């Protein structure tokens, strides 16, 4: 985005971004996880740093190199992600939850590697729901005037269109902006490009045409900057 070169509109701001996908361990070597690459979160962190912000990037299992000028905190599980995001959010002007936390975790983690049995049977896995970090930081704000942003990859279903479901999710989460990817036609995972609709709690809708994840990152920070005043 040539138009953002030299922009320092986020100077003096502390911005927190989460990226990647969490892992929930079954035993020391196995986990439940997801396909989030971390590319969009890293693009957000780089874009914010380029615009002068102090950036904390909480990265869950991302294999990308640390962006220059960004404080990177590495985590694995949703519990660790929650602890680091909640701690950083306390002094943040804005938080963007680009990470994909696992929705469920095994209720018990075995200290030893789970062995196969000779009879060909497989163990069941009992799951518990993970805490909703976005909902927590949106509904227990420690800093007035902060801007909180969520992401949602949605497919339409019998109960509503992608945007219907996304509007409902925005309200449920209590965040200020929700960046919505329509993944009905295929996944965005690992792709350098992204296209999205940004829904705002104040009713605004911003359509972002297909482009780089960096371009989308800059549009998201534009929306955040406007609301920070
Ligand atoms: N999120 C979160 N904590 C969780 C799950 C999700 O903070 N335990 C955040 C994600 O980082 C994202 C937003 O919530 O910014 C929406 O994630 P999504 O998976 O779409 O929402 P869920 O509430 O988990 O709903 P779903 O059942 O559709 O997966
Ligand atoms: Ca989810």
From TrEMBL:
Residues 15-229 are annotated as: Phosphopantothenate--cysteine ligase. GO terms for biological process: coenzyme A biosynthetic process; pantothenate catabolic process. Its cofactor is Mg(2+); FMN. GO terms for cellular component: phosphopantothenoylcysteine decarboxylase complex. Keywords: Decarboxylase, Flavoprotein, FMN, Ligase, Lyase, Magnesium, Metal-binding, Multifunctional enzyme. Pathway: Cofactor biosynthesis; coenzyme A biosynthesis; CoA from (R)-pantothenate: step 2/5; Cofactor biosynthesis; coenzyme A biosynthesis; CoA from (R)-pantothenate: step 3/5. Residues 10-226 form the DNA/pantothenate metabolism flavoprotein C-terminal domain. It catalyses: N-[(R)-4-phosphopantothenoyl]-L-cysteine + H(+) = (R)-4'-phosphopantetheine + CO2; (R)-4'-phosphopantothenate + L-cysteine + CTP = N-[(R)-4-phosphopantothenoyl]-L-cysteine + CMP + diphosphate + H(+). GO terms for molecular function: FMN binding; metal ion binding; phosphopantothenate--cysteine ligase activity; phosphopantothenoylcysteine decarboxylase activity. Its EC number is 4.1.1.36, 6.3.2.5. The keyword Ligase applies. CTP binds at residues 103, 113, 131-134, 151, 169, 173. Binds 1 FMN per subunit. Catalyzes two sequential steps in the biosynthesis of coenzyme A. In the first step cysteine is conjugated to 4'-phosphopantothenate to form 4-phosphopantothenoylcysteine. In the second step the latter compound is decarboxylated to form 4'-phosphopantotheine. Catalyzes two steps in the biosynthesis of coenzyme A. In the first step cysteine is conjugated to 4'-phosphopantothenate to form 4-phosphopantothenoylcysteine, in the latter compound is decarboxylated to form 4'-phosphopantotheine. In the N-terminal section; belongs to the HFCD (homo-oligomeric flavin containing Cys decarboxylase) superfamily. In the C-terminal section; belongs to the PPC synthetase family. This is Coenzyme A biosynthesis bifunctional protein CoaBC. The lineage of its organism: Bacteria, Bacillati, Actinomycetota, Actinomycetes, Propionibacteriales. The chain holds residues 188 to 416 of 416 of the full protein.
């Amino acid at each position: 985005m040539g138009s953002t070169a030299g922009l320092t509109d986020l100077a003096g701001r502390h911005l927190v971004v989460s990226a990647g996908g969490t892992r929930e361990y079954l035993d020391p070597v196995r986990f439940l996880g997801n396909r989030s690459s971390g590319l969009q979160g890293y693009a957000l962190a780089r874009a914010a740093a380029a615009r002068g912000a102090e950036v904390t990037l909480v990265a869950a299992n991302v294999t990308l190199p640390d962006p220059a000028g960004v404080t990177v905190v590495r985590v694995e599980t949703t519990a660790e992600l929650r602890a680091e995001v909640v701690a950083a959010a306390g002094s943040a002007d804005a938080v963007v939850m680009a990470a994909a936390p696992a929705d469920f975790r095994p209720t018990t983690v075995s200290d030893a590697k789970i062995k196969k049995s000779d009879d060909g049977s497989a163990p069941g896995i009992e799951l518990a729901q993970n805490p909703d970090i976005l909902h927590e930081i949106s509904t227990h704000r420690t800093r007035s005037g902060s801007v909180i942003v969520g992401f949602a990859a949605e497919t339409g279903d019998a109960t509503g269109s992608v945007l219907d479901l996304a509007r409902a999710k925005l309200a449920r989460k209590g965040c200020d902006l929700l960046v919505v990817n329509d993944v009905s036609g295929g996944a965005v995972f690992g792709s350098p490009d992204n296209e999205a609709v940004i829904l705002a709690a104040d009713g605004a809708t911003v359509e972002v045409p297909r482009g780089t994840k960096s371009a989308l990152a800059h549009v998201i920070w534009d929306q955040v900057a406007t609301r920070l005043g």
